[in-house]
Write a structure and sequence with these properties.
Elements: H1 4-11, H2 45-56, H3 70-84, H4 100-128
Helix pairs in contact: 1-2
Length: 129
């Protein structure tokens, strides 16, 4: 099995622009300015570069049990650690979502679950008194 870094070498120079970052999409020099990040968000050059091998070179779903998933699974585990460390979270507490709506629903469900426990605790305390 090839190490995670090996995929980056497969991309070749035709994929990257100056400084090794992915080349920007063609467009006007001044470019359009996106002011609505509620529906779409630009992907930073470092993020795009880190993701490129897994978008173009690997076909395994990290959640699958077959061997094609090994490299993407390791990369996802490394990304979770990298995202969790600066905020003092554990990698198992780090969830990547496909978008804002999914993230909002996860936060709401966790919040409602916590509120439900608080209501249970309060009810039990009142019953005991």
């Amino acid at each position: 099995m090839a190490p995670v870094g090996a995929a980056r070498r497969r991309l070749g120079p035709d994929v990257t622009g100056p400084g090794g970052y992915l080349a920007p999409p063609p467009g006007p020099a001044d470019g359009p300015v996106c002011l609505d990040y509620s529906t779409t968000a630009a992907v930073g050059p470092r993020v795009a570069q880190a993701m490129a091998p897994y978008l173009a070179g690997f076909c395994g779903n990290p959640s699958s049990s077959h061997s094609y998933a090994d490299v993407p699974r390791r990369a996802l585990a490394e990304a979770r650690v990298e995202a969790a460390n600066p905020i003092g979270a554990g990698s198992s507490e780090t969830v990547f979502t496909a978008g804002g709506s999914e993230a909002d629903m996860i936060c709401l469900s966790v919040g409602l679950e916590a509120a439900d426990h608080l209501i249970d605790d309060l009810t039990q305390a009142l019953d005991a008194s």
